[in-house]
Write a structure and sequence with these properties.
By secondary structure, the chain is of the alpha/beta class. It has helices at about 10-20, 30-35, 55-65, 105-120, and strands at about 1-5, 25-30, 45-50, 70-75, 90, 100. The chain has a single domain (about 1-100), classed as 3-Layer(aba) Sandwich (Rossmann fold). Strands 2-1-3-4-6-5 form a six-stranded mixed β-sheet, sandwiched between helices. It is globular. The protein starts with a strand and ends with a helix.
């Protein structure tokens, strides 16, 4: 599991949720660091949440998808749907992510989303 998160508090929280569920977790704080990491570490899933414009976020996810096409990508956002807290959604057609999850969310929602993604892996 690769967590791409630029806020320390969310990094700790998401990592703790995943570690507690038994996942092996690597953490990076930027799109560039994620690209470097996946050259040697091929995660089953990538939890992607950084404060960047949607176009830039999409570009990073496309690059990650090229480098590790088997990885499932979960796009985490606090801005996509502020009234649907913790909801899991299917991304828009032009989105590279396999699913999205709105903040805030409980541990069970994150772990469930990851298990769902891994169950649909090619």
């Amino acid at each position: 599991m690769l967590v791409v998160e630029d806020e320390a508090a969310l990094t700790r929280l998401i990592s703790w949720f995943l570690l507690d569920a038994g996942f092996v977790v690597a953490v990076v704080a930027s799109g560039n660091a994620a690209l470097d990491k996946v050259r040697n570490f091929k995660p089953d899933a990538i939890v992607f949440n950084t404060v960047i414009a949607d176009d830039a976020k999409k570009a990073w996810m496309e690059k990650l998808r090229q480098l590790t096409p088997h990885s499932r990508i979960l796009d985490v956002s606090e801005e996509k749907n502020s009234r649907a807290e913790g909801m899991i959604g299917i991304p828009e057609v032009d989105n590279v992510a396999d699913a999205s999850l709105d903040l805030p969310f409980p541990a069970e929602r994150l772990i469930g989303a990851i298990h769902d993604l891994l169950a649909t892996a090619p």
